[in-house]
């Protein structure tokens, strides 16, 4: 149990705050971000606990992808704080971020047409121990098994998404930023990806998910942040999502 220092007599709210602080793997605080002169993030503030699946929900153009890109350092013009495992990472150069065990699966997936499945899988360097081996990957994504020599872009959209996730898992990343993994995929594939992410959660991985498919998001997430015009405007725990649908729909304009 954590000690409450320097306060000798520990009141419950302070103790709970201490616990919450200790459990946050990622803290994003008042994050502002720009593309050139275009100010897109206006003070994003949210946190992610170890082992959680947290979503960023919001209308098109709200700034969800930009938030992931700002965490990875792809968006360079940023202000505010991004703290990972208690250390500031906003001042790190982009190429150092993956070496913290943070993996990014972008919306466009980035599967190389000129490389086969195995070559695509082996492309990024292993950044941390504990990454998944090829057999483990094929167990998680059976659709990829036996496809080693298939050119990456000969795979279906769903299989390419699986390959994009698998490639990051092989690196040893245990904090994954996942941008719209279900976009354009058939419901049966969406279910398979949901099942895979649940397995990853059971193994203790932490995931930040940008997602438009609410049913999918609700089937795996612990908490949801609603983003509007580059700022978090609401937080909804997954267990109260069904009762919060009117509120959420008004944000999403559904
Ligand atoms: N490379 C870029 N250069 C300039 N502006 C950009 C760039 N990428 C995105 N934007 C703008 O930044 C804003 C936020 O975009 P972002 O992609 O983060 O939104 P999003 O919430 O992820 O929405 P979507 O679901 O459409 O991807 C939008 O106004 C978008 O037009």
TrEMBL record:
Cite the ABC transporter domain residue spans from the record: 26-254
Give the GO molecular function terms: ATP binding; ATP hydrolysis activity; branched-chain amino acid transmembrane transporter activity
Can you cite a GO biological process for this protein? Answer: L-amino acid transport
Provide the alphabetized UniProt keywords.
Amino-acid transport, ATP-binding, Nucleotide-binding, Transport
Lineage, top-rank taxon, reads Bacteria
Q: Is ATP-binding one of the keywords?
A: yes
User: From which residue to which does the signal peptide run?
Assistant: none
Q: Provide the family line.
A: Belongs to the ABC transporter superfamily.
The protein here is known as: ABC transporter ATP-binding protein
- Organism listed in the record: Borborobacter arsenicus
Which taxonomic lineage does the organism of this UniProt entry have?
A: Bacteria, Pseudomonadati, Pseudomonadota, Alphaproteobacteria, Hyphomicrobiales
